[in-house]
Design brief:
With 283 residues, this protein is an alpha/beta fold. It has helices at 48-54, 68-83, 92-102, 109-121, 133-138, 140-151, 157-166, 169-172, 184-193, 218-221, 224-242, 247-263; strands at residues 40-44, 60-65, 128-132, 276-282. The chain is built from twelve helices and four strands.
Length: 283
């Protein structure tokens, strides 16, 4: 939407606010904030059924699902950073127990898989772009083209390559850019909102940790009991509702479906009209 311009924002929150957390936007509703470019973009962790309750399901929705085991590995340093807790103080095994005991909706395995099924059933809606996180890594340029088409933003090969470079883990994690994704703004805003004393930020927290940006890493380090929970819940929810026995099987079916649509002239997902694009993610 900014045609590959060099990033100049201090925090990701400044250009893509979190829509259900207004206190992170200076106490103003996210929809009231100015954004660069012609298309406004918001991030959200709302599930599909929650979007129905807020009537936001009528907006353009980019949904990204990530393997829940990999996600647990990823959110460990991220959430510890937000809490200003060193990961050595709260190691991954203890963190996994902690997160599951809290039963926050965003971390609840069953709720996340139910939302995956809901979005899958709406994957061909004109206002929905359905993506897998692993495909964003493995087929980044194609996903960028799909997103640009969905947002009705012109993107030639040069712009796609430029955006692919800017969104690479190497660039986002570099000394010049990592602070833009460190989420230090969230930490400060939460501290201010809850009238907490501001603490020294743990260095290099955020969404682009060093060594991150990989697929499949979770299986080697996340507690086996949690992996069994994910597998069992998948069978109870996803296999029961839409028939897929695994995430890999679901991804393969989606790739085949999209390839057939492209060959038939469908060209993938599309929408009509400019305006807001909201991203619902299972980080």
């Amino acid at each position: 939407r900014v045609r590959g311009a060099e990033p100049d924002f201090a925090s990701q929150q400044d250009v893509m606010p979190w829509i259900e957390c207004p206190y992170m936007c200076g106490y103003r509703p996210a929809a009231e904030l100015e954004q660069p470019g012609d298309v406004r973009v918001f991030k959200s962790h709302l599930r599909y059924r929650e979007l129905l309750d807020t009537n936001m399901h009528r907006r353009k929705l980019v949904y990204v699902f990530r393997n829940l085991v990999d996600r647990m590995r990823s959110i460990h340093p991220f959430v510890c950073g937000l809490m200003q807790v060193d990961t050595r103080t709260l190691p991954l095994a203890d963190f996994t127990n902690f997160i599951c005991l809290l039963r926050f909706a965003h971390f609840d395995v069953r709720l996340q898989l139910e939302s995956l099924c809901d979005f899958w059933l709406h994957r061909n809606d004109d206002n929905v772009l359905f993506l897998f996180f692993d495909d964003l890594i493995a087929q980044r340029e194609q996903c960028i083209r799909d997103i640009a088409r969905f947002m009705e933003v012109r993107a030639d090969d040069a712009l796609v390559r430029r955006v692919a470079e800017q969104t690479s883990h190497t660039v986002m994690c570099s000394p010049e850019h990592w602070h833009r994704f460190s989420e230090s703004k969230i930490v400060h805003d939460v501290q201010r909102y809850f009238k907490l004393s501001e603490q020294q930020l743990v260095a290099h927290v955020g969404k682009v940790r060093k060594g991150g940006g990989k697929s499949g890493e979770g299986r080697a380090v996340v507690p086996k009991w949690f992996q069994r929970v994910v597998d069992a819940t998948w069978r109870d929810v996803v296999t029961e509702r839409i028939g897929f026995n695994s995430l890999e099987e679901m991804r393969a079916a989606w790739r085949a479906e999209r390839a057939a649509a492209t060959a038939g002239g469908g060209g993938g997902a599309s929408g009509s009209g400019h305006g807001d694009a909201r991203a619902g993610e299972s980080q």
